[in-house]
Amino acid sequence: MYLDIQKHRFSAILFLCWFASYLERFLINMALPFIGKEFQMDEAGLGLLLSTFFAAYALVQLPGGWLSDRIGSRKVIIASIGLFTILSACTGLAWSLASLFVIRFLFGIFEGCFPTASFKAVAEAYPKDERARVQSVLLATNPLSLVVAPLIAAPLITMYGWRGMFMIASLVGLAAFLAFLFGGRPRAAAEVASGGNSGTKWRELLSDVTIWKISAINFGVNILIWGFLSWIPTYMLKVLKLDLMSVGMLASLPGVAGIVGILAGGWLADKMFNGREKHLLVLSISLAAAGLVLMLNTESLLLIVCCQIVVAFAVKLAFIALWALPLKLIDAKNMGAASGIVNLGSQLAGSVSPALVGFMIVLGNGSYSGAFLFLAGCAVVSALVALTIPGSRQPAAAILPGMAATEGTK
After folding, report:
1. How far apart are CA 408 and CA 396, in angstroms?
2. For the purposes of burial, counting CB atoms within 10 Å of the CB of 366, is it exposed (0-12), middle (13-18) or buried (19 or more)?
3. Contact (Cβ atoms closer than 8 angstroms) between residue 320 and residue 266
4. Are 408 and 293 a contacting pair, CB within 8 Å?
5. pLDDT for 206-248, tens place per residue?
6. Reported pTM
């Protein structure tokens, strides 16, 4: 009973940390039009600003995962949250365009160390048959922050400007830092405490085809996710001609759908699609692509918002279906390094997608159609790659040495 309380408390603290991480990241999407106006930047320049964060984030995935395995997840999480909170607040203090780019790059460096450390912490604290559900709850902070970010950002920008918005909102990161610093941690799960296996060497992880396929799918899915999420507020302001408060309200609706999608994904991955996660992944990616194409072929605001809700639900369902694979394939001792490889795909996508979409919008003379069709195409390619990966009941020997290969793939 005491252990259960510890585990629930630890997951609640991690939930707050993930929420702070995503919230600080998403706030800039609402601030983009105002940053562009102040610094005289078009969509291409703003896309580069977004991609600067993701380039830095991607850069630290492998070293961040290695560091988590080396010195422990707790130390990395504390340092990461503290530093990215400071840099988020500093975004509002940028005195020039160059300083803004440098601050966002450093913000990406320190926030990028958090996910791999958190994945390792989950692997250490929970048995494998609970990890997908626990991680789905933690990753529900992604769509939750999509709900909260515009609702917070719109009134704060209206009252204090985009600079004041960043400084005030950084208080959420401060709360997460203090909660994790003083909140303790649970005992290790039995399979971790008993020793498990001795861990897999870096060169074996780096040569494993399955891990790189999952990373490649993560890349394609996140091209869609970040290209879609980064530009939807600007799309609604400039193309649909909505006012800021209306955008704040409507932009929160896909976040609600995403919460449902990611929680449903965790349950489905552990229950109905256990061992067949790739099929859940393919179905959800295909639904997201269909919703995006339909959105571009209607002029009805109601239908556009409905399509956005469908896309948000589907991409979050795909997101947790994808992460269920490494959570079930990889031993806790290797989770920092292996999750760094997988997460590298999503962050490389983040470094490419916003800038690429911005350039495509400029080339299309302000039209978003070509850019969004490109995003749908990336989703289709990801679905095709997903069909080639094994189910979670036939892991690669390099990831789980000694596990019977006769379990087969469903």
Report:
1. 11
2. exposed
3. yes
4. no
5. 677 777 888 888 888 888 877 877 777 777 777 778 777 777 6
6. 0.67
